Amino acid sequence: MGSDHYFSASPSSPEQLRRLRVALAGRDLEVTTAGGVFSPDRLDAGTSVLLANTPPPPAGGDLLDLGCGWGPISLTLAMDAPHATVWAVDVNERALDLVRRNAERHGLENINAVRPEDVPDDVVFRTIRSNPPIRVGKNELHGMLEHWIPRLAERSDGWFVVQRNLGSDSLQRWLATTFPDGFGVTRAATGRGYRVLRVRRHGSPPSGPIDVVS
């Protein structure tokens, strides 16, 4: 694709719409994907590991899928928490269009698929779930996380899946150093060469001990 990547705002590659069957939230779904977005031909391994190693989302409030692609995390959150509002955020307009198509196809009216700047500044999140775009570059990735992680509500968790050979351990160290006050960073799970990192925003003051997923 040359300079055309899944994190391009407007991919210039052919759309090439395709249908894909995936299992999400205990349901067998047919979804639409396309060229120019992340993992258009399958549910990628990292997202599978994330979905298998995170707890059910909060039942209500605002939930964030950061770097949503064609929407597997957003669709899962929306089905698991039908009374919550799911923000599917991506810079890729084609990806956002696919999320909207897939949400409409399955009657999921609680998904807002938007660009980052279209999320109101006063929205705080009960959870963040993300397979972040590591290949966008370290500076861009760090800036993205520095923007969104502070928007976690108190006593809420962000869950991030990163491939071990693409720097999951160094990212965990960076997170712990960057968010030392009021946050806890742990490795929640390991599988198929991926790490699931959990960033916990503590309460003020904490209400009892913070549980740690091992």
Protein described:
- The chain has 214 residues and is α/β, with parallel strands linked by helices.
- It has a single domain (42-201), classed as 3-Layer(aba) Sandwich (Rossmann fold).
- The protein has 5 helices and 9 strands; from the N terminus they run ββαβαβαββαβαββ.
- The strands form 2 sheets. A 7-stranded mixed sheet has the order 5-4-3-6-7-9-8, with helices on both faces. It has a two-stranded antiparallel sheet with strand order 1-2.
- The protein is globular, with a radius of gyration of 16 Å.
- 38% of the residues are buried.
- Mean pLDDT is 91; it is low at 1-5 and 205-214.
Topology overview:
Layout: E1 18-24, E2 27-33, H1 45-52, E3 62-66, H2 72-80, E4 85-89, H3 93-105, E5 111-114, E6 125-130, H4 138-148, E7 152-163, H5 168-178, E8 183-191, E9 194-201
Parallel strand pairs: 3-4, 3-6, 4-5, 6-7
Antiparallel strand pairs: 1-2, 7-9, 8-9
Overall geometry: globular
Low-confidence stretches: 1-5, 205-214
* DSSP strand tally: 9
What is the average per-residue confidence, as pLDDT, rounded to a whole number? 91
Share of β-strand residues: 25-35%
Question: Which structural category do the helix and sheet elements fall into?
Answer: alpha/beta
Oligomeric nature of the chains: single chain
How far is the first residue's CA from the last residue's CA?
40 Å
Radius of gyration: 16 Å
CATH C-level class is Alpha Beta
